[in-house]
Amino acid sequence: MSAIDKTFESLRSQGRKAFLPFVTAGDPNLEFTGKVLRELVARGASLCELGIPYSDLIADGPVIQASYTRVLDQKQKLADILAAAQTWTAELSAPIVSMVSYSIIHRQGLENYVARAKAAGIAGAIVPDLLVEESDAFSEICKREDFSLIQLVTPTTPRDRALQICETSTGFLYFVSVTGITGERTELPPEVVDQVGWLKERTELPVCIGFGISKPEHVKMLAPVADGLIVGSAIVRKIAEVEEKGEAAVLAEIGELVDALTAAMES
Amino acid sequence: MSDPISTVPDSSGRFGEFGGRYVPETLTRALDELAEEYAQAKQDPEFQSQLTNLLNTFVGRPSPLYFAERLTEHCGGAEIWLKREDTNHTGAHKINNTLGQALLTLRMGKKRVIAETGAGQHGVATATACARFGLECIVYMGAEDVRRQAPNVFSMKLLGAEVRPVESGSRTLRDAINEAMRDWMSSVETTHYIIGSVVGPHPFPLIVRDFQSVIGREARQQSLDSFGSLPDRVVACVGGGSNAAGMFYPFIDDSQVELLGVEAGGRSEQPGDHASPLTFGEHGILHGSYSYVMQDEDGQTCDVHSISAGLDYPGVGPEHSFWKDTGRVDYTYCQDAEAMAAFDVLARTEGILPALESSHAIAKAMESARELGAGKRLVVCLSGRGDKDSNEIARLKQEGY
User: Fold this and answer.
1) A83, A107, B144, B301: least buried by Cβ within 10 Å?
2) Which residues of A touch B12 (CB under 8 A)?
3) ipTM of this predicted complex?
4) Domain coordinates of chain A in residue numbers?
């Protein structure tokens, strides 16, 4: 049982939903990422997604793309991120899961990535460019090492395929709310409620919804049907303003955003 | 006995260990549909005759196989024959693929097309095919390439396409592909992505190779007709590798024919100064497939350089990676200055302005001619015409080339 499994088990027993914020590792520096993570967990984050910057991402919109570019321009290396993550995971009460391109995992070697991430206290990986049919080798290593491999289902995924993905995903299932890239949306497609509801009747795996969520209205629409909600770009956008506004102001704004979203989740 | 080298990819898009599909789940259904549609079209005589008719009457195929007599004399060695893809409508081999994919777009009932372009040749060829069939066309192009290939940008606009400059990353072909993929993530249900090279997730490397194989099929037959035998060596430039894949594939099981792919050697062999992943790169993943790629120890794609926008790409098609590792094709690289020199020689000995991309192949063909010696024959894919490069060449010459 990975730390992620334990988190969802505990939330379920309390009848609560998970709040999963996403932050880019090292934006604008690793020290500030640590501060943001502490703030997020203090405000009730159940699990934090740590984005490992990648040069050629496809699934992300302009906000996360710009964030990754800021970090890569500073020549920050994976080793620096993992070293920092080790100090964060030692003190944070919520688990950290890496959001990482398969290009990076492959380059490290599959076993090696899992070993290094685990040594840093990271509980699993969301690999947005690893499809279920290409994931056998990595999935086997993750299962053996009790390292969660969170797979994704999207609105374009046929139903039988979605069930197949539920069977191989561990930790939770990442349900992508929109046919598109990450980034805040004014409105989210209402069909997602039925799509997730259909899946929830057929899998024991916790299902978390992400992409586009940035407002309490989104949370109110989706929270009843999901086990957790993922918020990325809305937080990363605030982090982008740190140079202009200062760390304290940005942390306060992130805190307010998280409070507003989590309050909508509990209501 | 092992299967002939031509029997790739398998049903999951693997060329040996290379290829496959490394993309977000959102794109899976569209890629499956495309693979299925293509498999049907391939067997459909009506589709094939429609495509052949277009290639003959709209593109002007077959393109000539031309004996470059004065270039041969200049080099003093093997005969150099040029496969004249520069004579195609729109001035390069790219139209072979875009017409095929535009027909697939119509079959799938999609009305909007997106494409990426480096040198602009694929963008122009896509805009042309879309105009011909009344499809909406958006072309993503790195901002640096918009600058250095301005004539093509204007042509695309004249053909009714929208050109979207890409300001992210290195502002070249690689970033244009990323941006096109991102568009496709949101538009996949109504839009077809006409990828311009033998790269990307399965089934693109297969489809583009097949549509470009008309080059090699013609060249093979024209060799038999012109000089009564297969050539001793076939040479083509490799960026993503579509003209080379199309040129080589019909010769791949003719083991007596040597195949030589020429990557962009840039300014030097230092990382960042060239675009030669098959020579200097690693096995890795870029733009949805497993292939040779220029990447650092973390797996981040490296910046690359070539004077030629069409070769300025850190990855290469998976089938080329397969051909390299099986030893069937030799890959070398040609530096910027050698390509510029070859451009001048071809212009002045034959009256042909080659594209800067094709000039890389010409340079290594000239070297090959001397190496093979008299009595041998070389066929070079002259993948495109150089008019688009005139301004850039003028600028480079002032810089000391």
Assistant:
1) A83
2) 133
3) 0.97
4) 3-266
